[in-house]
Each structure stands twice: as structure tokens, then as C-alpha cells.
Design goal:
Length: 411
């Protein structure tokens, strides 16, 4: 079947979106990438702490390579649900629509009463990491966050370890600065705290810090730090669980944060209108699930709370939802219930902030769509591309992707 008159709309151009672009254009299928930001890097740019320099540059280069080609129309600064409705997108006339818009909304903290303190001793992971990445830039105008000793991170994935690392390197860098020693957070992350301190004949104990706590509701063996392959043997599963414990221990050795498992928050502690801690409860782990133990509640004081319990896709008017995620028929095909030829790919569907998992899922869905779901005879390409030109015009984009990237490059 000829793909000459086929065009697929892809919402989001980062890891999942660019993978879909690659799979489709390799088969001669034109794509339009509709991106909410000026540049299509998504969480590669603002979801990873700034020390992931090599990984970030590598992924950005790959995204640029895939988007900057003749078979791709790029539409920046256009957010579905804000600048262009879901209904308009579905009715644009494309062969199919792939939602690769990621998971930008932090999953709600399990204790709702904490919401009133957001931005005041309580922060969600996504805005916290964004602050860390940008607050030292001369052009930064966002909120300022005062990192304090004895903070707590609630979570258990690789992202939560990154948050604990941010807190630790910020703490140590600030204490050293007070002593006349300039050591950047990037240097501390690269060397590790014990090694960096040793260069100045200092130890952790010399700093007088308690350090950050990372709390997880299940046990170390169940932390989502390494994935267990589907259908894995008992031996392979055990090896992965041991790897999880090793990843955590290596991170603790290098960044000196504290850790406690089998515990979760059930309330908050307030004093004089301030958030000063959390009420915790201990858990048993039964069949790999956390089960609270009655009578084990206890109050623990913390200086600040960071929630790192995962991200979910932002709700879009007209996009069917099932609880807090998109309503899909089948994870493998990504097909959205109630919408014709609309599919979810990557983190918007998998619920995992993992680059490899996101890319793999997008690849599978894009190939499925290309081979099974494109309309016979194609679509009215002229009409679709005319609509695309209007969107580009509204976004101030003139069609030269390389020039656009160069003009909007960050510090």
C-alpha cells in the first residue's frame, strides 16, 4: 500500500514523539509534530536534573535529527486543549493521531490536606527539578526554593533518588560556601559527596548536617529502580531485585542521604500555620504490596517535603479519561476509547518516566498504526497541510527547523 497521501499528527516531539516520527517517516508517511513548547525536548530538557548533560545532549540531537526532515511539519508553541482543541485535532483530517504528550502532571500527594502548603515547604517533583535546572540562570524569573536540612522525599523510583541527590548537593554546596569554599552542585554530583569533601580534609560529620530522608512505602526489593522483564524466570526476577538494592546502596554511599522503607504518610503536622512534618504509618509487604500496620502511626518532623510519587498525563478536554490516566483499549496498541484512530504512546500511557520504556512503546504503536490503521486511499493532504500552515503562522514558525532551534537555544 502506498503511503503517499498519508499524514499522521503527533502531539509532542520528545522521546516518544520523535520515535514515532522515525518509524513513520521511514515508511514514507508524512508527520506533523504539534509541540506545546518552543522546542520539542519535553522532560529530556526539564525532567532530568542538569547533571545529565551527556544524556540530554544525545537525546536532543536525536530528536533534532528525526524532526528536521522533509517529511515532517513542525508546529511549536501549540498546546492541545489550550491553543487547539482535541476536537479540532481529530477533525483536522489526518490519517491518525498519536498522543505523545508525556506525563507532566505530578500524581497527587496521598494526604490531601498538604495541598495548602504547596510552594511553602511542600513541592512536587516536576517544579522542583525545573527550579534546580534553571535557578542559577540570569534569565530565571520563576519561584525560588530554599533548600533546608532534614528534608524528606516521598517516593521510590530513580527520579526520587535524583530529587534526594539534588537536596544533598545543594545543602553541601551551601554549607561549603559559608566556609569560603566554592564547589558547585555539578562537581559534587560528579565526584560524590565523600570524595569531594575529602579534597578539603572534611567529612560529612564536619558539616553538622542531618541530611535528606528518602521514604518508600514498600521495601527495597520492590523499588522501581530496575524493571523485571515480562515472563522472567524466578532466578532472573531475584537478580533484578538484588540489583535494585545495589542501585540504592550505591546512591546512598555517594550522596549520603538517609533511607527508610515500609513507611508512608497518612497525615501532616502543623505548627503556627506552618507545615513542619508528616504523620507516618509503618507497612508490611505482602505479595509485593504495602499493607498498613494499625497502631504504628508516628509523627516525624521534617523541614520540607518533596513528593516524587510519579507523573500522569494532563487532562485534556475531549480526551477520554479513566481515573487519572487516558482511557485506552489496549496498552500494546495504545488505542484511545471513544476516539477514532487516536492512539497514546510513551509516558502518557505507560505511566513510567523511563526513556527506554517510552521509546519502545512508541515504536510498537507507531509500527502497528503504520501497518494496520491507515485509511485506504489516504487523506486530503492539501486540506490538512493548509490547516498546518495556519497553526505554524499563529506560532510564529516559518518552517526552518534548524534556524528555529538555533534561535531558541537555552543557556
Amino acid at each position: 500500500m502506498s503511503n503517499e497521501n498519508q499524514i499522521v499528527a503527533i502531539v509532542g516531539g520528545a522521546v516518544a514523539g520523535s520515535e514515532a516520527v522515525y518509524q513513520l517517516t521511514e515508511r514514507g508517511i508524512r508527520c506533523v509534530v504539534i509541540e506545546q513548547n518552543d522546542l520539542p525536548y519535553g522532560k529530556i530538557e526539564d525532567g532530568l536534573p542538569k547533571w545529565h548533560t551527556k544524556q540530554r545532549k544525545k537525546q536532543m540531537a536525536l530528536i533534532n535529527e528525526r524532526v528536521d526532515q522533509e517529511l515532517v511539519d513542525f508546529v511549536p508553541n501549540t498546546k492541545i486543549g489550550r491553543d487547539y482543541s482535541m476536537g479540532d485535532l481529530v477533525n483536522m483530517g489526518c490519517s491518525a493521531v498519536l498522543m505523545a504528550n508525556g506525563a507532566w502532571k505530578d500524581r497527587g500527594f496521598p494526604v490531601k490536606e498538604i495541598a495548602k502548603y504547596e510552594g511553602d515547604n511542600f513541592y512536587y517533583q516536576n517544579p522542583f527539578v525545573y527550579w534546580f535546572n534553571h535557578h542559577e540562570q540570569s534569565t530565571y524569573e520563576g519561584e525560588q526554593i530554599d533548600v533546608t536540612d532534614n528534608a524528606v522525599v516521598i517516593g521510590g523510583g530513580l527520579a526520587s533518588i535524583d530529587v534526594a541527590k539534588i537536596l544533598q548537593v545543594e545543602l553541601v554546596s551551601n554549607v561549603l560556601k559559608e566556609r569560603g569554599i566554592e564547589l558547585s552542585t555539578l562537581e559534587l554530583e560528579h565526584k560524590g559527596i565523600p570524595k569531594a569533601l575529602a579534597e578539603f580534609d572534611l567529612t560529612w560529620e564536619d558539616l553538622g548536617l542531618q541530611g535528606t530522608y528518602l521514604l518508600y512505602r514498600r521495601n527495597v526489593r520492590n523499588m522501581p529502580l530496575a524493571s523485571i522483564p515480562e515472563g522472567a524466570s524466578a532466578e532472573k526476577e531475584e537478580k533484578v531485585r538484588q540489583t535494585r538494592a545495589k542501585i540504592l546502596q550505591n546512591a546512598q554511599n555517594k550522596y549520603l542521604f538517609r533511607f527508610k522503607d515500609q513507611t508512608q504518610p497518612v497525615g501532616i503536622i502543623e505548627e503556627d500555620g506552618k507545615l513542619v512534618g508528616l504523620r507516618m504509618i509503618e507497612n508490611d509487604v505482602i505479595n509485593n504490596k504495602a499493607v498498613s500496620k494499625a497502631g504504628t502511626e508516628n509523627d516525624v518532623k521534617y523541614s520540607m517535603v518533596i513528593s516524587s510519587i510519579g507523573s500522569i498525563p494532563e487532562p485534556i478536554d475531549g480526551m477520554p479519561m479513566e481515573w487519572s490516566t487516558y482511557d485506552i483499549k489496549d496498552l500494546e496498541t495504545g488505542e484511545i476509547n471513544g476516539l477514532d484512530n487516536v492512539f497514546g504512546v510513551g509516558n502518557s500511557i505507560t505511566g513510567k518516566g523511563n526513556i527506554r520504556v517510552s521509546r519502545d512503546h512508541s515504536r510498537e504503536v507507531a509500527i502497528y498504526v503504520a501497518e494496520n490503521r491507515l485509511p485506504d486511499g489516504g487523506v486530503d493532504m492539501d486540506a490538512v497541510r493548509m490547516e498546518i500552515k495556519e497553526l505554524q503562522k499563529k506560532a510564529g514558525y516559518e518552517g526552518n527547523y534548524s534556524a528555529w532551534v538555533a534561535a531558541n537555544a537555552r543557556e
